[in-house]
């Protein structure tokens, strides 16, 4: 059996001509940085997401970083987020000298738990006079939206902003709305393995607000002012390359179709896994859609996961663990002084979750073989 975990080669074959043509255009016009492809991809994706502005940038991490900078986040600020995510979500908070305050997750969606968010906001207000509660970063883990109807009013009523970390969920919808149109700012990533990926690093920030848009555009290029060598503030080198934008323009052509294909694959997995003992398939609340950045299932416990992943490896079926260690237990966040047991749901999920191969071109035959291996 030779089943890729993510199949970018088959995708490339579908759009090879357009990819080569688009890259060739960049080589011909020579505007490698901030070429015409940049404005074009920003317009296409912001239009698709139903947001006024898209600001392309060098990575999903830079998208988050630029957003926090635009919101003036710094030392003494508390930013609430989930510990069950890729490190970038909380890393940028700490890099700016602010303090990530973790909130446990929902055991079904693996996204931030609104009730715990309410508790943690109150905790910071009452017990951490050294911190000022500033905002929330909700993550749409594995491509499925967080519970925005609960989270957004909670944040706004407490005077906090909301950033949507849509690095894994560009194209997903919450009650019919694109996740990138939710919150005050939404950030996504075009890392190759994400549902919409380029051929290197890339990201985008989505905003409705014109002032925030202006700030983001400035921060993206060293805090540039009206004139190129006029610097109004500090910023970063956050631009996306024209070649990556050219790749995205070609890939975006088939992206809506690929989302549908991902859903077909996910539905097939759900049906096949229904009679696998001790394996819990992911579920998405009615009214929402996931783009299935990862297809993660739960084993009964840690030993059961080891057994199942061992069986897959033996049959040459790739699998992975997203994420084996929640952020509050990472050495990088040692100074936050969290301990095992602080986020029981995140810790439990991390101990028994694992991901199966997932991509739009996965065949039903391959899925059947994968599930057969799981059954033993
Ligand atoms: C991938 C990812 C990021 C960072 O994106 P990069 O483009 O790799 O910098 C941030 N948050 C989450 C949840 C991610 O999955």
UniProtKB/TrEMBL annotation:
InterPro entries: DegT/StrS_aminotransferase, PyrdxlP-dep_Trfase, PyrdxlP-dep_Trfase_major, PyrdxlP-dep_Trfase_small. Keywords: Aminotransferase, Pyridoxal phosphate, Transferase. GO terms for molecular function: pyridoxal phosphate binding; transaminase activity. The modification N6-(pyridoxal phosphate)lysine is found at residue 194. GO terms for biological process: polysaccharide biosynthetic process. The active site is at residue 194. SUPFAM superfamilies: PLP-dependent transferases. Belongs to the DegT/DnrJ/EryC1 family. This is Aminotransferase DegT. The lineage of its organism: Bacteria, Pseudomonadati, Thermodesulfobacteriota, Desulfovibrionia, Desulfovibrionales.
């Amino acid at each position: 059996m030779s089943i890729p975990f993510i199949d970018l080669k088959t995708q490339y074959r579908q759009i090879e001509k357009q990819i080569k043509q688009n890259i060739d255009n960049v080589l011909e016009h020579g505007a490698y940085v901030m070429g015409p492809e940049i404005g074009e991809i920003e317009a296409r994706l912001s239009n698709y997401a139903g947001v006024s502005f898209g600001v392309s940038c060098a990575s999903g991490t830079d998208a988050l970083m630029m957003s926090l900078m635009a919101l003036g986040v710094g030392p003494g600020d508390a930013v609430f987020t989930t510990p069950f995510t890729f490190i970038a979500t909380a890393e940028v908070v700490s890099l700016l000298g602010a303090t990530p305050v973790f909130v446990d997750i929902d055991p079904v969606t693996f996204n931030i738990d609104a009730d715990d968010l309410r508790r943690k906001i109150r905790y910071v207000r009452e017990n951490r006079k050294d911190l000022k509660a500033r905002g929330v970063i909700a993550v749409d883990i594995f491509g499925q939206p967080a519970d925005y109807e609960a989270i957004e009013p909670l944040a706004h009523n407490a005077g906090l902003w909301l950033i949507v970390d849509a690095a894994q969920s560009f194209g997903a919808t919450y009650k019919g709305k694109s996740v990138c149109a939710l919150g005050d700012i939404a950030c996504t990533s075009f890392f190759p393995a994400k549902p919409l990926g380029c051929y290197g690093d890339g990201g985008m920030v989505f905003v409705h607000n014109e002032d925030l848009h202006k700030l983001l555009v400035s921060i993206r290029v060293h805090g540039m002012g009206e004139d190129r060598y006029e610097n109004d503030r500090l910023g970063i080198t956050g631009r996306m390359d024209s070649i990556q934008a050219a790749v995205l323009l070609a890939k975006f052509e088939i992206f809506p179709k690929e989302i549908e294909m991902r859903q077909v694959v996910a539905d097939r997995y759900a049906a096949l896994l229904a009679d696998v003992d001790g394996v819990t398939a992911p579920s998405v609340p009615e009214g929402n859609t996931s783009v299935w950045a990862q297809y993660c299932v739960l084993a009964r416990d840690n030993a059961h996961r080891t057994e199942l992943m061992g069986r897959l490896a033996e049959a040459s079926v790739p699998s992975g663990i997203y994420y084996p260690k929640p952020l509050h237990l990472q050495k990088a966040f040692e100074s936050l002084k969290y301990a095992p047991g602080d986020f029981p749901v995140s810790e439990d999920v991390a101990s028994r979750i694992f991901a199966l191969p997932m991509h739009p071109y996965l065949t039903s035959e391959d899925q059947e073989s994968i599930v057969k291996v799981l059954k033993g």
